[in-house]
Design goal:
The protein has eight helices and 14 strands. The strands form two sheets. The protein has a seven-stranded mixed sheet with strand order 2-3-1-4-7-6-5, with helices on one face. It is elongated and about 65 Å long. By secondary structure, the chain is of the alpha/beta class. Helix 2 packs parallel to helix 4 and helix 5 packs across helix 6.
Length: about 350
Amino acid sequence: MAAVNKIFAITTRGLESVCAEELATVPGVTIQEVAYRRIFASCREALTPLLGLRTVEDIFLYAATWSGMGRTRSTLQTITTMSAQLPLDTMASICAQVRSLPEGPIFSVTANFVGRRNYNSDEIKQACAEGVTSRLGWTYSEDDGLASLNLRIFLEGETAVVGVRLGERSLSKRAYKHSHVPGFLKPTVAAAMASLVGVRADLRVLDPCCGAGTILIESQVYQAEALGGDVDVQAVKAAQQNAEDAQATVQVQLWDALALPIADRSVDRVISNLPWGRAVKTQPTLKALYDGIGRGIKRVLALNGQAALLTNQPELVQIEGMKCKSRIEISLFGQTPTILVWHNRNSG
C-alpha cells in the first residue's frame, strides 16, 4: 500500500475555495480542511503533480502542530525544543523523491504570526534553526534563495502549524516572470481568475488591459487561445518577453481598451486586472474608464460568455446587459481588491 502523506497548501486570502478545488483534482488527494489561507489534505499517490498547481502560493508536507505558543518570550525556547523533535530527515527523504536534494541540506525558515507577541519573526526563525541544527547538524541560511529546504511556521493564537516546502522554491514564483510593469498581478491570482470563469482548451480569452501578460500566460496554460493588449508600449514589450520566456503562444497588441480592435461576440472569456488609478494613472476618470471598458467587454463577449475583473473599487464597475454573479474580496499587496465575475445574461 502506498504511503499517505499529509500536506497543506497556502493561498491568497479569499481564494481558499478556488485552491481547494484545484488541489482536489490531483490524483490521490483528499481535502480534509479549508482554513484561513490554508488547505489541509492527504495524498496517497505521487507527490510530483502537486508541484504543477497554479492557484496555490505554495505546497508543504505537514510536519507538526504545536500548542502552547504563548505571547511571552519563553515561547522561543519552546519553539527550539519542539523544532529539535521534527522528523525533518524523513521529510527531506520525501522531498528527494520529487526533486534533487543534497544530504544535510542548507535550510531556511519562514515564520508568520497573527496578533501581538513579545518576540518577532526573526527570533522565531532563529529559535527554530537552533533546534534543527542541534539535532541534525544542518546549516541554516537566513536567505531562502541559498537554501534547498524551507521550514514554514504559522502561529495563530496559541497554535503553530509547521510544514516543509515540497518544492525548492515557492510555486508562486513562475520562471517566466522576469519583466514587470507597475500594477503587475500575482500569477496565482491570475490563475485563480481563469479558474473562476472555467477557462479551458476550446475557449478564446481576452485581457483588454494585459500589463505584463500574466493573465494571458496563465490562461494559455489551460490551452485556451489568449489575446490581449495594453495602451502602454513598455507593458506590451514586457508581456511579449514574458510570453516568450514562458514559451506561451499568446497574441499581444498595442491598443486602447476603450476602442478594442476585436470583432463583436468573438471571445468567450474576458479576464483583466483593471487599472486601479494608483500604480497606473488613468485618464479619463476611473469611473469613465470602467464604463468604457465595460461597453467594450459587452460588445466582444460571446453569448453565454463570462468575465472576471479585479479592482479595488468594485462599486464603479457596471456592465449594462450583464449580471454580476459573484464578488470575491482578496488580499493583494496590502490592499483588499475584489474579483467580480460577470455573466452575459442575454444567452437565451
